[in-house]
Amino acid sequence: MAKGPESSELSEFEKQRLANIAERDALLKKLSLEAQSAGLFNAPKPLGSGAPKPKKRAAPKRIKVEDEAPLPRRQSSRLRGLTADSEVVKRKAEEQYEAAREAERAKKVRRTDAYSANDMFIAGQKLEGDSLIGVDVVNKGVAEPYVRTFGDDDIKKTTDKDLKALREEMDGLSLWTQWDPQRIKITPERIYAMAFHPSETKPLIFAGDKLGHLGVFDASQERPETGDDEEEDDDPDPVLTTLKPHTRTISAMMVHPSKPTSLFSASYDSSIRELDLEKTTSMERYGPESTNIDEALSGVDMAADDPNTLYWTTLNGTFGRYDMRARLSSKTVTNWQLSEKKIGGFSLYPTQRHYFATASLDRTMKLWDLRKLSVDEPVPVAEHESRLSVSHAAFNAAGQIATTSYDDTIKLYDLGSKGISTWKPGHTLSDNEFRPDTVVRHNCQTGRWVTILRPQWQMNPQSRIQRFCVGNMNRFVDVYSESGDQLAQLGGDGITAVPAVAVFHRSKNWVAGGTASGKLCLWM
């Protein structure tokens, strides 16, 4: 069939469309030629011509944001069956969004009420009779990865008989091997604080992590025997108990020797709680008047002769005191603003509680006297400035202070030899008088994912030589004497992370180390 005259010719619209396409192609070709002549880019070579393949961009590094829950995602009005751009929709969306944000914030607000074992229980062994420790324990007495920098050769070269004997004793501590350290996960998250129970009959260890979990481990348990024909999957894990007394990081904890049934813990949730180890109940002993006040606590301590008064420091640079026998109020709590920056750690002088030392982000370690400490204008007894921030200041019963600092040093100050026990109120030391007696080189560059290294003394050593322990970035725990002599470097098979949080038992030569993965290492 012959085509009609309308179908044999293009319409005016089609002619204009084709003209536009031709004009666009010509313009693009002209621009491309001009760019090549100006050297802006070279024409792409065909495949197989030997041209190098473009390099793949490296994937951006993921940055982990701690303790931040994701905000709720918004949904469109269409998906929710609502009319768009209406005031009702907008108001409802904002209300839902704010409600979700408030719910996330409420999860981190500290709990001021008391709660029982069932309220705190997260995982592990269910407690018999709701007790963490037996009455018998209370009544029987409280008294470069893997590259070693200290070993047997150093011990053999020691000429001082007492020092050599102590080095051999401390070096004789061995890693607890009932279970591999990789299987002793005492907390779900990174360990920030640890403590031994003062009992000498049972090694009982507490650990607090960054999300407020409290792990309890009894190292007197023995691994059950399994037959050779049993499969590896049948091998039971160690018995652990996990509680959650706080809503945020547990920064410090302690058991007072005259009150062995109570564990006191300080947290970034602004509270200090007392855990009754017999009843497994937790009570808040200190907290700001309002739960909206954020005063993250960095440390807690109590005087050796007073189990009723709490002392603490905050990340806001304050130092506080409260007698638990008085009703908690602004009138019974005393706070001193001692630093414009955070106080990372502090400790009381065990034999004279009016003296205490603080370590701060402002690069100073300061000594204070509560007898002459003004609330309005607090003045330290002495202070020493380091090149970088000071992480912790630990007092021992002999009047010596050990500090760790980001300038990669452990500094030892011997105030006992300077007569601190005889100082009168108002006594001060000049900068020249308050200098470290010993400086030990020690790698303190923990970075973001490893807990800050802090020295911790053995409070009642069974010899005349004082000693303390501190984590080692080469995946050991180092033990030093009061004069800076290294006594031991504790390690062992199965330790795959830095035991950054290291603690001594008060009187026994037991040392525990905690890692960023919540694992426990124990030497006995």
Automatic annotation (TrEMBL):
Organism: Penicillium diatomitis
GO MF annotation list: DNA binding
Residue spans of biased composition, Basic residues class: 53-62
Biological process according to GO: DNA damage response; regulation of DNA damage checkpoint
Keywords assigned by UniProt, alphabetized: DNA damage, DNA-binding, Repeat, WD repeat
Any Pfam family matching the protein: WD40
Ranges for region Disordered: 40-85
Protein name according to UniProt: DNA damage-binding protein CMR1
Statement: the UniProt record of this protein carries the keyword DNA damage: yes
Keyword presence, ATP-binding: no
Gene Ontology CC terms, in alphabetical order: nucleus
Domain of life the protein comes from: Eukaryota
Family: Belongs to the WD repeat DDB2/WDR76 family.
Record's function text: DNA-binding protein that binds to both single- and double-stranded DNA. Binds preferentially to UV-damaged DNA. May be involved in DNA-metabolic processes.
